[in-house]
Amino acid sequence: KDNLNEMIRNLKDTTLKNAEQDWLKTNRAKFSRMLQGQKDLLTVGRLILSELAPVVSAQQGVFYIMDTATKQEEAGLKLLASYAYKERKNIDNKFRLGEGLVGQCALEKEKILLTEVPNDYIKITSGLGEGNPLNIIVLPIVFEGAVKAVMELASFDRFSPTHETFLDQLTESIGIVLNTIEANMRTEDLL
């Protein structure tokens, strides 16, 4: 009987792992198709957030792009696009490297996950009411060692390990897309 239970448990684990792999593959393919041939940064930022939020069950998102047009010491991130985000007076739309979690994420090139979000930190609002997120994830978007952008997502749920894996993989793809768009913009400037 123990053997049978073990077999059933293993089968469940395998089925779950396969389902997760399928989910990852399907969503990776969907986003690759969606991002292919995009030429506009703002469109990419908005598209990613609006398509990504339901996939990882996030209720709010912001996308900051690295602004390197200015002098190196003034390099920072500026808000490019947002999803269901309500601007607040004391919250900045620009961050220098190391400033706030967005700036820190860009500086360290490491994701930051907040699991016990304080009550007064941020509200996810709708027409019916508002509530506090349970998880916030801040993700660096890096291409060949250079930070291109930072994406922040808030959710009423915990981000599952599968969601986190997907986000890690997706940020790589986004990095490539952003780099291509920037290269095309530079080429157009030269012409």
What features would you highlight for this structure?
191 residues, alpha+beta, 4 helices, 8 strands, globular
How would you describe this structure to a colleague?
α1 runs antiparallel to α2 and α1 (2-35) runs parallel beside α4 (161-190). With 191 residues, this protein is α+β, with helices and mostly antiparallel strands. The chain contains four helices and eight strands; from the N terminus they run ααβββαβββββα.
Question: Biggest sheet, open or closed, and with what strands and sense?
Answer: 6 strands, antiparallel
Shape: globular
Query: Based on DSSP secondary structure assignment, what is the total number of beta strands?
Result: 8
What's the end-to-end separation, in Å? 74 Å
| Element pattern in H and E | HHEEEHEEEEEH
Looking at how many chains there are and whether they match, the oligomeric state comes to single chain
Q: Which strand order spans the largest sheet, edge to edge or round the barrel?
A: 3-2-1-8-7-4
Radius of gyration: 19 Å
> What structural category do the secondary elements indicate?
alpha+beta
Percent strand equals 15-25%
Low-pLDDT ranges: none
